[in-house]
Every structure is written in C-alpha cells, then in structure tokens.
Amino acid sequence: MPANLTPDYHAAEARYRIAVTVEEKLDALREMLRVIPKHKGTDRLQGDIKRKISQLKKESIKKSATSRKTAFFLVDKEGEGQIFIVGAPNTGKSQLLMSLTNAKSDVAPYPYTTQKPIPGMMQFENIQFQLIDTPPIDREFMESWLPGIIRNGNLVLLLADLSSPDALEQIDVVMDKLQKSKIHFVKETKAEYQSDGLMHMPLIIVGSKLDANGAAENAGIISELYGQKFETVCVSALDGSGLQDLKQRIYNNLHIIRVYTKSPGKQPDFNDPVVLNLGETVLDFARQIHKDFAFNLKHAKIWGTGMYDGQKVQRDFVLREGDVLELHT
C-alpha cells in the first residue's frame, strides 16, 4: 500500500534533516509522527520514527547526566499556528501577549522581565492560534536556545517601541541576530526550510505603544522603510487600537484556509472548520476527516464562491476559504 505522505509530513521531514540539536530533531520527529497518515502503508515508517524518538531521548538523558547543559525549552504546538513574539527589551511583548490571549505574563517598566517562553491562546473568529512571548534580544545578548524554538514556528511578530527614538535600531538588531541564526524573513511565504539551509519565515513588524506621545511619527517611518518588504502594523495593547487588524494579518500570513463539512440534507457547521494549507484539495480535506474517507472518496459536492450550490467536484479540486464540502464515497 502506498504511503501517500502529505506536504505537512515532508515539511517536518525537511526540518528533521537540517536539525542540529537533539531538541530540534525531537520536535521535528514528533511532528512527523503527528501528521503521518495512519494506515498499513505507513506502519513501518511510523515504527522507524518512534525508534528514532526513543534513541534521541536516551541520548538526551545521557548527555544531561554527564555534563552541565545550557537551558533549553520546547513549546508543544497548539491551535492552528504557532506565532513567536520577539523584540528588544521593553518593547511591550508581554503586554501584547496578555491583550491577545488568556496568558499571564510579568509586565514591568524595566527590561528583561521575560526569562522563558510564555505561551497563550489567541481566538480568531472560530479558530485559535498559539502566541509565545520570548526573552528580549539586544545587540549584546540573545538566549542561545531562542532561534531553535522560533525555527519550529509558523510566523514571527517583531515588536518595536513607537515611543522610543531607537525604534528602527530595535528592528534592525533583532532581525540581524535571527538572520545570523539561519532564519530568513520573507514576505508572502509559508514557514519552511529551503535548499539553502535556511528557515524561510513570514514576518510582521509590529509597532507597539501606538497610544504614546510621538508614536504616530515613528509609525509612518516604519511603514515607509519596511512596508514594501514586510507586513507592518501599529497597535496599542493598552487601548486595543490595531489589535483586530493584527489578528487578521496573522491569519493571512499563515497561508491557511477554513473549509466546512456538510452532511446530505443538513446545514453546514460553521463553528468547527477543517483547517487546510492554501492550495490543498478535496482529497486533503477528506484525509483530515478520516483516512477511510480519503481512500474511498469518489467525489464531493461543493458550496462556495464562484460555484453553483452542490456542484460536483473531483478529488484534485483546489479549495478556497469558506468552501463547504459534502463528501461522497
């Protein structure tokens, strides 16, 4: 039986091949195991992945028992995307996390409050994303483990303090530090490893503290200097200005779509979407529902933009945001 490995699996496998640390390899292998199609054709491959995970765990335990190791963190992915909030000291990262999610993070008027990754879940309409606050980055120091966990994410929010005369320098220093750690920021792309050995990731530059005196001038400068190459948005985590715009831009930059299920003779459930990568098909949708649907699928009926209600489509039909599907086996 063919394995029929998905694009998500191949992406995780590419991350594993280029991973350097044990932690990065473990994270990639766990993702491979999570997304691999579960059927007889992949039984042997699943076994190989489990053995590699077991072996790496043993190596990690052995190393920790024989040497003092630098601290590291792994953040298990939740929701439909993992977004890292990065920035220079005191740029408002923790305040943004708390304003967008249910997380509790230390907020103080002095720098270096955040010492470890702090996750929280952000609601966007009928789905959730995981946002992660991270320790600050400056010209002198960046936590050695930070690039590793960022490379496993889907999107980066780079904060700059609009009330600071150093706002542009904050952006340049953080971007330079991360790019030297094999993270290459590209507009309008999905996060994935490329043949150049770099992790290509989408980036949104977020001007924070929009409510502060003089912030508007810096906001215009940032938009003019960086707006052609990256997404830019300015917000106030205190009064809420720009937060809804930021949420929409986060969704757009993850390059995903929401598609809905429908049973014959019933109304679709718009509260529980199936989330797919942009460009995926009816067959990919069926795999998300159940492997048997994908194996036995004959065709589907679709309700969506540019289609007449109930139009019959084949397995390779490319889906769009908001489509409703009725599967027929």
Automatic annotation (TrEMBL):
CDD domains the record matches: TGS_DRG
MF GO annotations: GTP binding; GTPase activity
TGS domain segment(s): 255-329
Position of the signal peptide: none
Lineage: superkingdom: Bacteria
PANTHER family listed in its UniProt record: DEVELOPMENTALLY-REGULATED GTP-BINDING PROTEIN 2
UniProt name for this protein: TGS domain-containing protein
Organism: Candidatus Schekmanbacteria bacterium RBG_13_48_7
Lineage: Bacteria, Candidatus Schekmaniibacteriota
